[in-house]
TrEMBL record:
<keyword id="KW-0369">Histidine metabolism</keyword>
<comment type="pathway">
    <text>Amino-acid degradation; L-histidine degradation into L-glutamate; N-formimidoyl-L-glutamate from L-histidine: step 1/3.</text>
</comment>
<dbReference type="InterPro" id="IPR008948">
    <property type="entry name" value="L-Aspartase-like"/>
</dbReference>
<dbReference type="GO" id="GO:0019557">
    <property type="term" value="P:L-histidine catabolic process to glutamate and formate"/>
</dbReference>
<keyword id="KW-0456">Lyase</keyword>
<dbReference type="GO" id="GO:0004397">
    <property type="term" value="F:histidine ammonia-lyase activity"/>
</dbReference>
<protein>
    <recommendedName>
        <fullName>Histidine ammonia-lyase</fullName>
        <ecNumber>4.3.1.3</ecNumber>
    </recommendedName>
</protein>
<dbReference type="Pfam" id="PF00221">
    <property type="entry name" value="Lyase_aromatic"/>
</dbReference>
<feature type="cross-link" description="5-imidazolinone (Ala-Gly)">
    <location>
        <begin position="141"/>
        <end position="143"/>
    </location>
</feature>
<dbReference type="InterPro" id="IPR022313">
    <property type="entry name" value="Phe/His_NH3-lyase_AS"/>
</dbReference>
<dbReference type="GO" id="GO:0019556">
    <property type="term" value="P:L-histidine catabolic process to glutamate and formamide"/>
</dbReference>
<keyword id="KW-0963">Cytoplasm</keyword>
<dbReference type="InterPro" id="IPR024083">
    <property type="entry name" value="Fumarase/histidase_N"/>
</dbReference>
<dbReference type="InterPro" id="IPR001106">
    <property type="entry name" value="Aromatic_Lyase"/>
</dbReference>
<comment type="similarity">
    <text>Belongs to the PAL/histidase family.</text>
</comment>
<dbReference type="GO" id="GO:0005737">
    <property type="term" value="C:cytoplasm"/>
</dbReference>
<feature type="modified residue" description="2,3-didehydroalanine (Ser)">
    <location>
        <position position="142"/>
    </location>
</feature>
């Protein structure tokens, strides 16, 4: 069970909730904060104080005072009017993360919502009723208004949800689970949608997948090192210690660990003096991407436990401040950084693929073909990898450098953080396919060299992957191999059992 406090949610806990369906609970102290915060809102309404979002309009309408009789209608109108998301829905795992993060933010006790709202979000999580949230339509300030409005619709019994393996009307899921729609009270609609939980939810799923992918890239690069009889000296600890980057040192150590005992790697001067950069510089390039991933992790862990509502309620309602914590710039920049970092795993991988298939760069059969000329072998797999790498270069253009004013220039600078997060997700999927292609080529190369000469760890990995992708004995529809291996990599992630059997990644 994962107990939320609003202060200490971790990425590992998100992995447990989103990928392992862990049950979620709320800490008692957090619920007390929620109750006190709600009492403050009710006091403000009773005293007829004019506070943004409680009894005023929104955005450019912030100067319009709303009659006390209409404050509930104000919240309902807000959700319905702001549910303008378009396009394909976020993956269901992202929707689940969105629920979790919004719940964690609300229980910090600065948003003024009723315990009933918190309890419903908790029920949705534990019953696995996940909002269908269109991906497009958020500017990333004032938070993720459109996506979170689609999440809020579900509390009203409206919209659509993922439920029991299918997409259906929220009302259908509610009927089966015996739930009734909630009527929003003062401030609750705004509290549900003013935040960065769509971009952050997409961001944490991105990071979890990218972290796994980064480890996988090292296993696959180790196979390529053996397939090309790479020079192991490039990973000597002294080389990396004098550079000073810990992530580079760590990659080099893991590469030495993976390749320990291999009779396929060579020493400096044995077959050649030095390797091409795509082999020799694996620790430097992969290590730099790890540095970026560490930065992204730090920002996500802060944002996951942040109060991103507006206005925020302090001192039992004595102090209510309209600020800008909903602005997604910290996550927007982090996601743009992630895009560049993850794209590089594919960029260098594609260059290793070229070295595996190009007969001018190795002594293997051209394109690893079983009958060069009659059969093309891996020739076009390299084309696919090059195409994906090129697409990533376009997607890696930073979204955060753009801003378009909205709400009649009241909201005149926005983050585009959700666009950055969505593009990062696409890059990650592309990178996984490129790595799958490298893996298929490297498997064939080491088989030609002699698998009995492989390191114990890479040999174990080889045996497992060969169950997914058979040897290339004749041309076939390689798209099916690529997709099958891609799916295997995604499901197994870096926690492939062989890692625990054969090497520590601590």
């Amino acid at each position: 069970m994962v107990v939320l406090t609003g202060e200490s949610l971790s990425l590992e806990q998100i992995r447990q909730v989103c990928y392992q369906d862990e049950i979620v609970a709320i800490g008692a102290e957090s619920m007390e904060r929620v109750k006190k915060s709600r009492e403050a809102v009710e006091k403000i309404v009773a005293e007829k104080r004019t506070i943004y979002g409680i009894n005023t309009g929104f955005g450019k309408f912030s100067d319009v005072v709303i009659d006390e009789r209409d404050v509930n209608s104000l919240q309902l109108n807000l959700i319905r009017s702001h549910a303008c998301g378009v396009g394909d829905p976020f993956p269901e795992v992202v929707s689940r993360a969105m629920l979790l993060l919004r719940l964690n933010a609300l229980i910090k006790g600065y948003s003024g919502i009723r315990p009933a709202i918190v309890e419903r979000l908790l029920e949705l999580l534990n019953l696995q009723i996940h909002p269908v949230v269109p991906q497009q339509g958020s500017l990333g300030a004032s938070g993720d208004l459109a996506p979170l409005s689609h999440l809020a619709l579900v509390l009203l019994g409206e919209g659509k949800v993922f439920y029991q393996g299918k997409m259906c009307a929220t009302s259908e899921a509610y009927e089966k689970e015996g739930l009734v729609a909630i009527e929003l009270k003062a401030k609750e609609g705004l509290a549900l949608i003013n935040g960065t939980q769509a971009m952050t939810a997409m961001g944490v799923i991105n990071w979890l997948e990218a972290n796994d992918l980064a480890y996988q890239s090292e296993w696959i690069a180790a196979l390529t090192m053996e397939g090309l009889e790479g020079i192991i000296d490039a990973f000597h600890p002294a080389v990396h210690a004098v550079r000073g980057y810990q992530q580079q040192v760590d990659v080099a150590e893991r590469m030495r660990n993976l390749l320990a005992g291999s009779k396929l790697t060579t020493r400096q001067g044995e077959k050649r003096v030095q390797d091409a950069y795509s082999l020799r510089c694996i620790p430097q390039v992969h290590g730099a991407s790890w540095q970026a991933l560490d930065y992204v992790k730090e920002k996500l862990e802060i944002e996951m436990n942040a109060a991103t509502d507006n206005p925020l309620i302090f001192d039992d309602g004595k102090t209510v401040i309209s600020g800008g914590n909903f602005h997604g710039q910290p996550i927007a920049i982090a996601m743009d950084f992630m895009k560049i970092a993850v794209a590089e795993f594919a960029s260098i991988s594609e260059r290793r693929i070229e070295r595996l298939v190009n007969p001018q760069l190795n002594d293997l059969p051209p394109f690893l073909s079983p009958q060069p000329g009659l059969q093309s072998g891996a020739m076009i797999m390299q084309y696919s990898a090059a195409s994906l790498v090129s697409e990533n270069k376009t997607l890696a253009h930073p979204a955060s450098v753009d801003s378009i004013p909205s709400s009649a220039n009241q909201e005149d600078h926005v983050s585009m953080g959700t666009i950055a997060a969505r593009h990062a997700y696409t890059i990650i999927q592309n990178v996984r396919r490129v790595l799958a292609i490298e893996c298929i080529c490297a498997l064939q190369a080491v088989q030609l060299r002699g698998i009995e000469k492989m390191a114990p760890k890479t040999r174990a990995f080889y045996e497992d992957v060969r169950k997914i992708v058979p040897s290339i004995t004749e041309d076939r529809v390689f798209s099916e191999d690529i997709e099958r291996l891609t799916e295997w990599l995604k499901k197994n992630n870096w926690q492939w059992t062989g890692i625990k059997r054969h090497v520590s990644l601590a």
